[in-house]
Amino acid sequence: MSDDTFMGVPRSKIPWCPTIDYDKCDYCMECDEFCPHRVFERREGEEKKLVVAHPENCVVFCKACGKTCDPDALTFPDKKETIELIKRLREEGKDGG
Amino acid sequence: MEGSREDAIEIVVLPCSGLDKEAGSASRELALLLQEKGASVVCPVLYQRSPKRYEKVLGGGRLLVIDGCKTGCASKLAAECGLKMVKKLTVTEAAKERGVKAGKNPNLREALRHLLPTLADELLSVEPVETPVAVGARDPFVGPVTFREFSVDKFVFRVPDSGYFFNENDCWARVEGTLARVGVSDYVQQSASDMVFFEPPAIGTEVSIFDEVGSLETTKTALDIISPVSGKVVGVNQEVVETPELINEDPYERGWAVELELADFDSDRELLMDSGAYFDYLKQKAEREHKELYGG
Question: What ipTM was estimated for this complex?
Answer without folding.
Answer: 0.86
